[in-house]
Amino acid sequence: MPIATTLPSSSIVLRYPTTSTSTPEVIQEESYQLLELPAEILKAVEKSSEPFPLTIKGRPNDDAVLCTPSTTFLLRTVTISNSLLILRPPPPRPATATRTDPTLEIRDTCHQVLECVPQAASLERIRTVLRESAWEGTGTLGKRKRGDKEPRRYTREMLGSVIQGSEVELERGLKERNVIPYRGRMMLLPLNHLHPLLSLVLALLTIHHTTIALNESPPTAVSPSRPLQEALDQDHEIDPEITRGVMGLFGEMDSDGEVWTCRPAEMVREIGKGLLGAVKSSGMGLDKLLNDWKEAVGETWSDLVNVNLLEGDHLLVDPPPAVTSQPRLIVPFPLYQLPLNPATRFADLFLTRPKWRPDDMIPFLKGLYRDGDSKERDKLVAKFVRVVKEGQGAWWYPRRSV
């Protein structure tokens, strides 16, 4: 790395490295890239008492990103009009040599800098790389047919090396996609297999001395963990390690591992998403789905069923005005199947519907900007959306450039 030095107030001499017969040395060409740190990273580096980790991530075909412990930035090359010289003091000279002016050597000339642009972590790759080794349901582990190719299994560290996101974002992404540790590797629990297991868990919670507080925000339930694990193992062939992983996704254990405090609303949501995933593309009556959902979670938890829990996974379709007897339909429309490129995402959304209510579209913009960054979201909307105020309120139409 270049050595920082204080420049004198008087003139200095700049020269390229040279060699002479009296001071032979091997001169190696040096090349540098300059990274311009945004204010939020610079402040974190200055405040940290320990070395502040900055990690560049990306496969060969990816755009490189820079990750702090909690945020992700796209690295973008920017050409600058003024050249920047990388300078360092020259090597020491013999004691007999004299130098009248301060001298610095030019080690490289830079015409570009790397700029950090805030962006959301690219977490959907989690589902892509873990799909092949995903859980196949109860009683299936260890029963792969002879001759079947063993799928590649990823450790937590391996995932961290291929997912372009910070550790905090990666941990959140694993939980959102129902990924648990299993036998030293990370395993995806697909909703079509997970939601029947969660229905069993909710049923067992009602009979194992559970303290239920549905009026809290969020609702909680406290239960002894051992009876749940034994019932799922002995009666339903659920590996105890998978049960513990599921308990970690939807709650926390006490220090002794004997008491589980869970979040039933999150389990109810995943059951609803599992049922919705089985609905055909033509849709299902909303009332029927809600009834099936309540039946799947059981009477104790039925008050938690709410279509708003499926935000970002469905569309609601009203019947034609002339056919009032037709029920309102719910259609599967999962966010994770939408493109990651903003222009393509907006184009797909407007192909699905020619106009949108703002509150209906916003859930499908997740992943295009950092969670909670409303300013960046508004910039995207201004770029791709034309707002039209009509009698029933504001509607979003596509801009011609989309």
From TrEMBL:
Pfam families: Dcc1. InterPro entries: Dcc1 (IPR019128). One of its GO terms (cellular component) is chromatin. It comes from the Eukaryota. Keywords: DNA replication. GO terms for biological process: DNA replication; maintenance of mitotic sister chromatid cohesion. The keyword Lipoprotein does not apply. Belongs to the DCC1 family. This is Sister chromatid cohesion protein Dcc1.
